Amino acid sequence: MPRLFVALEVPRNAAMSLSLLRGGLPGARWIDVENFHITLRFIGDIDGRTADEVVDRLDRIERPEFQLALSGIGSFGSKKPHSIFAGVTQAPEMYALQAEIERICQRLGLPADPRKFTPHVTLARLRNARTEDVARYLTGRGNFHTAPFMVNRFVLMSSKESVGGGPYLTEEVFPLYDTGSAWDGTDIYDHPV
After folding, report:
1. What is the pTM of this model?
2. Which of 37, 82, 145, 191 is labelled catalytic?
3. Which contacts (CB < 8 Å, 24+ apart) does range 78-82 have?
4. 101-151 pLDDT per residue, tens
5. Does residue 120 carry a catalytic annotation?
6. Are 66 and 109 in contact (CB under 8 A)?
7. Which of 5, 8, 110, 175 has the fewest CB atoms lying closer than 10 Å?
8. Which residue has the higher pLDDT, 163 or 22?
């Protein structure tokens, strides 16, 4: 079974803005644009029955769509930086969705994620990058931000075991409901024309 994780997709216009940040840092292995995402919950390697249960429970989530933007860049690994990331604006709906996904995973017997949820988009993995080069790179790009975008679904993705960074495959799509519509619960096809 491939490694599974739940994520938010990065729309094309935001991904193109992120792609402009690539380069200028020795020791960086840049993530391909089509693999940019925001991980909500890493699940890992699980058996097929558990994967089916995860999909079934995720499919029952009913949450509203919401807006996000990407803002600022940083690095993980303070003494020895190991990755560069773009930050994500604070959105209560994203945190509520992530918390529900975490509860579902734990109810299914998956171990709790030991890391605090820090929404981000990984831009590069670092190998032998010098701390001063990383600091210089971050300083020159600290004012990065994208226009807000609407998040109207979340996805279950898989990755092959590798050093990280893809390729990723979308396994399942879970829509969020539209908060902008005045839908009253009836289907338009129920009414005669």
Report:
1. 0.88
2. 37
3. 79/131, 80/131, 81/126, 81/129, 81/131, 81/134, 82/125, 82/126
4. 999 999 999 999 888 999 999 999 999 899 999 999 999 898 899 999 999
5. yes
6. no
7. 175
8. 22
